[in-house]
Amino acid sequence: MTIEQANHEAVRRILAGDPVLVDVIPASDAIPDLSDRTILHAGPPIGWDRMCGPLRGAVTGIAVFEGWAEDLDDAASKAAGGSFTFHPNHHFGAVGPMTGMTTRSQPLMVVENKAFGNRAYCAINEGLGKVMRFGGNDAEVLDRLSWIRESLGPALGRAIRESGGISLKPLIARGLTMGDEMHQRNVACSSLLLRQLAPLLARTSKDAGELVACLDFIGRNDQFFLNVAMAMGKALTDPARDIDGSCVVTAMCRNGTDFGIRVSGTGDRWFTAPVEMPAGIYFPGFSEKDANPDMGDSAIVETIGLGAFAMAAAPAVVGYIGAGRASEAAAFTRSMTEITAGPNPAWVIPAMDFAGVPTGIDIRLVVETGLAPIINTGIAHREPGVGQVGAGIVKAPLKCFQDALVTFAETMGVE
Amino acid sequence: MTIEQANHEAVRRILAGDPVLVDVIPASDAIPDLSDRTILHAGPPIGWDRMCGPLRGAVTGIAVFEGWAEDLDDAASKAAGGSFTFHPNHHFGAVGPMTGMTTRSQPLMVVENKAFGNRAYCAINEGLGKVMRFGGNDAEVLDRLSWIRESLGPALGRAIRESGGISLKPLIARGLTMGDEMHQRNVACSSLLLRQLAPLLARTSKDAGELVACLDFIGRNDQFFLNVAMAMGKALTDPARDIDGSCVVTAMCRNGTDFGIRVSGTGDRWFTAPVEMPAGIYFPGFSEKDANPDMGDSAIVETIGLGAFAMAAAPAVVGYIGAGRASEAAAFTRSMTEITAGPNPAWVIPAMDFAGVPTGIDIRLVVETGLAPIINTGIAHREPGVGQVGAGIVKAPLKCFQDALVTFAETMGVE
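C-alpha cells for the assembled complex are given below, as produced in the milestone run.
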C-alpha cells in the first residue's frame, strides 16, 4: 500500500464514521481500567512537576472532589508526593477540554461510532467562567461537579437512552449552516441538542425541580455541545489509527506545557513540542500576562475538520477570538485545505457554496508548506483557581509535525 | 418637517422599538372588537368572491373549528351567503402567516413594544406541511388547532408570564449570527427561544404528559419562531404609522390575490396590485402549476429589514428558496440597501463585517430605481386543503409603490 492509499484509507474511515450519542454513565463503568487515585488529563503525558498552574489547580480540585485529599493544599502535597497516577485521556478512549480532568466518579458522555463499533468518552460541560476545565477548584466549582454527578448526569443518561441514540453527523451538518464551528462556537448545536433532549428529559424525569434545573443549566450554556463534539471527534479518529503507511494526524492535544500529536502510521507514539500562547481577546480586567499557554484535548475537533478548520461557517467567531475581520473567515478554511487530504462531503459550509470542511491533516503537507494547523481555543488564567480569561487562536507547533515526519519516514524504510 | 426629517423619524421609531414577547391569550381577550363570526385574514381587504383557493380552504376550516358551520361545504355556502365578516389582520393590530386566520377562540402571542406601549398579535405556528396557514382544513389540521387552543397556548402563556417577558431584539441579533433571516429560516431563533422556554414550561407545567407534548411540538418545528417575528414586526412598525410627510413603508402583505402596502404619510390607505407568483423550489411531486400566488402578512419581516432583506445572514436559505448560489446571498442584502433609509445597528450580519440590515423602505427609492422589495416566502397549493408545496422568492409589485407615490405626492401638495 502506498502512502496515498494508506492516507485515503485513513480519511475514508474518518468520513465513514457514524457517531451517535448513546449514553451518560459513570467513568468507572465506561473505563473499567480507570483505577482509584488515577487522574486523566488533557494533552500528551506529563507529570506533576511539569504541570502548569491551571492543570495543577484542576488536579488538586478533582482530588478533593473524589475524596482523595482533605483540601487543596493536602491534594497538592499528595500530588507532589506521588499519591496520584496521571495519564492522558487519550490513553483511555477519552478526551477532555482544557485541563480535561477525568476520574472514576464523574459521569461521562458516551459517543459510539456505529460504523466501526468503537466508543469514546467525554465529561459533561460545566458551563462558562470559573470552572474546573479552566483550573477553577473552589467550593462553587466542586458543588457544581457534585450536582452534575448526582443529578444532571443520570438525567441526561435516561433521556439519551430513551432517545435510542442521538445521531451527531446530521446535527453537525446543521450546526455548520448556523454559524457553529464546534470549538469556540457551539450555540447552534447546543440549542439543537436541547431541542431534542428537552422532551426526553421531561418524559424520563423523576423530579420536577430537577427537570427545571437540568433544562435551565443546559439552556444557559452556549458551549454545552463542545464536549459532545470532542467525544465525537475521538470516536471518529480512533478507527483511523495504526494504518501502516498513513501520515494522517489522528490526534492533536495540549496539556498547557506540551503540544502533542499522533499520526496513524506511527501508532501510539506522541510527538511533542512546547505549546504556544494563543493570540486572542481577553475578558475585561485580564491581559496576555494572565494567560496560560494553550491546553486541552479539544483540538480533536480541528483534527476532524471543525473548529478553526471550519471558520468559514462561523464568521461571528472570528471577532470573538480576535482573528481578524469576519468577512475573512473563509481564508482560514481555505488555508487549511492546503494541509488536508480533502473535503468532507457530509459537512458543508453554505457561505463557501457548500464546500466540505477540510479533513485529514497530512503531516507531509504541513512540513512542506510550513502551514501549521490552526486551532480556536479558550484561554485559561495561568494561576490555579481563576478560570477562563479569554479566547483566541493558536498554531500547532511545526516541530511536532517535523519530528513525526522523520519517524514516519523511518517506518517507511526511508533513512 | 421635510420628507427626509419625516422619514428619519419613521425609521428612528422602528429602530427605537423594544419588542418583548409578554403573553399568550385568547384572541377574544387580545382583540375585544373581534366579534363572533368575524374572520381576520392575511393581506389587504378582500371578499369571499375574490379569495384564492387556499384562503377559501382556511376560511371554511376555521369556520368549522369555531363551530360556525357543520362542515366545510356548509362553511363555504355560509361564506358565500355573507354569514361571515372578513377583515385584514392589520386592521386589528394582528398579523398572520400565509392565509393568516385569526378568530375569537384562537390563542394569540402578544408582543409588546415597551418603547412605545403598543401591542401586536399573531397566532401560534402550527408546524409544517398540511396546516391551515397553507389552506389545510381536514380533521388533522383542526385537531391540531384544538390542541393548540386547549394545551399549548395556555402552557406557553404561563411560561412566558413566568419569564417576565422575553426580549426579542437580542434574540434576533443572535439569530442573524446563526443563519436565520426570520422568514423562511427560523431554526436558530426557534431553538434559542425553546432554550429559554423549556425550563419555564417545566416550572409552570400542570401535567407531565402535556409538558412532553409541548416541548416535542415546539422542538420539531423549525418555523416556530416565524409567528413571533411577525408579531414583533407589527409591533415595531405600528409606531411608525401616520407620520405626516414620511414615505416609509409601514406594512407589506398579500392575500393570495392582491399585494398591499401601507405608507406612513398616507395613513391606513392600502395600495394594492395583483400579487405575483413566487419563483422557487417545489417539494417532490409538486410544480409551478400547483402553486398559488404569494400570500401572507409575513412580509412584515421584510418591512423591518429581515427576511430576504437579511439574506446575507442566511446563505443556506438561498438554496432552499432556489434563489441562486449561496455565496451570492450578500447581493440580495446589498440591493435592498438601495431602497431603504439605512442600516439597523442593533441587527448586524457577521459575514458582511457586521453591517446592519437595510431598514425602512422608501417608496421614492423603489420607484426611482425600479428595484422592488424582495420577499422570501412559502408557496401554498392553489387548491384548498392541500398545504405547502414549496418555497421561493417573490417581488413586491412596483405598481403598489407607484400608486402610493402619487397619493403621497398629493398629500404633500404636489400635483
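The radius of gyration of chain A is 20 Å. Residues 17-230 of chain A form a domain with the Enterococcus faecalis V583 fold fold (CATH 3.90.1710.10). Further analysis is deferred to the final report.
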